[in-house]
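Input structure tokens:
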């Protein structure tokens, strides 16, 4: 089992390395993105690019190095900056990360601010939203699924199943757009945008209602449908009928046997659902003005703030890969009969 875990973790990091390497090389093949702002701000940025190994600096114009990216002059110095070849930038980038954990600075979102600092500030907001939505959606969705399974082929089951089929097809960004129009702009019940850091506590709490509900909505429907299907299958199995014939009541048989076995595929799906929420929150965060890593990814991509984009992609990719590893391993821990890599 431990060999399997080690193998999966190593493969996850190899996959992460390949994805980030290809992303860096392909993005660096695009035209160089020049910073904006004051001359002093631009000069500080190019000096940092020289330190990182992405740009080289000369005191005089050079032939054969391509276009001059930036020319800085004052009474004392005259600097000319040129972009170095892509593969040299790539190896310098790897060296900066592995030796100093330096991912570079922002060019647009927060000029000359470390990209890791920007991600760290935004990650907390996204994680709060996603964790709260999972805490709400898991018990509600599973409870509705159990209720529908216990009332199988009855009006309650038909109503729940029909509503789930209808609502599960509604994307979170469509739902939040409709609710923003209805509750925020037309009736002014909730804030129209994510409250600022200086807003009152009540306004901050109200700001969580809309995004958390929209993130939880699809998950609740998914958990409900999955739980109902699994529980209905387990309840019709032979061993549950045998438990009933031995004298267990229906409630005892469901609690001791049916639910326990139905949870084996359901519990790992919570991890997969959490990753789905992370990915789906990109558009939702942008629509509601939430300062999370989802909206940051779209902003960095649109503004070509590549250093911030690299870190943001690394966060999303790492979470997705490690969650996939945990998802596979969780089957073995939940059901002792499943042991990956065990001897026969």
């Amino acid at each position: 089992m431990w060999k399997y875990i080690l193998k999966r973790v190593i493969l996850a990091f190899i996959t992460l390395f390949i994805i980030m390497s290809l992303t860096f090389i392909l993005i660096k093949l695009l035209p160089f993105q020049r910073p904006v702002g004051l001359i002093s701000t631009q000069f500080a940025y190019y000096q940092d690019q020289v330190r990182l190994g992405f740009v080289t600096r000369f005191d005089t114009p050079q032939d054969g190095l391509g276009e001059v990216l930036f020319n800085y002059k004052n009474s004392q110095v005259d600097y000319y900056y040129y972009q170095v070849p892509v593969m040299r930038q790539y190896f310098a980038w790897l060296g900066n990360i592995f030796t100093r954990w330096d991912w570079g600075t922002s060019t647009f979102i927060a000029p000359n601010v470390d990209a890791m600092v920007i991600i760290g500030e935004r990650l907390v907001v996204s994680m709060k939203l996603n964790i709260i939505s999972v805490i709400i959606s898991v018990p509600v969705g599973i409870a509705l699924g159990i209720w529908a399974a216990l009332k199988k082929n009855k009006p309650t089951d038909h109503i729940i199943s029909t509503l789930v089929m209808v609502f599960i097809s509604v994307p979170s960004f469509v739902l939040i757009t409709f609710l923003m129009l209805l509750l925020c702009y037309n009736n002014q019940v909730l804030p129209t945008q994510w409250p600022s850091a200086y807003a009152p506590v009540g306004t901050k709490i109200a700001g969580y209602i809309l995004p958390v509900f929209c993130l939880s909505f699809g998950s609740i429907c998914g958990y409900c449908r999955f739980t109902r299907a699994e529980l209905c299958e387990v309840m019709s199995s032979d061993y549950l009928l045998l438990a009933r014939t031995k004298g267990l009541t229906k409630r005892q048989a469901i609690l001791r046997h049916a639910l326990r076995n139905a949870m084996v595929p359901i519990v790992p799906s919570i991890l997969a659902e959490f990753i789905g929420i992370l990915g789906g929150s990109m558009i939702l965060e942008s629509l509601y003005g939430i300062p999370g890593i989802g909206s940051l990814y779209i902003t960095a991509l649109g503004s070509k703030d590549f250093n911030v984009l690299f870190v943001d992609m690394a966060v999303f990719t790492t979470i997705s890969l490690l969650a996939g590893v945990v998802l596979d391993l969780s089957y073995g821990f939940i059901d002792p009969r499943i042991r990956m890599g065990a001897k026969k």
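Residues 250-288 form the longest helix (39 residues). The longest strand covers residues 78-83.
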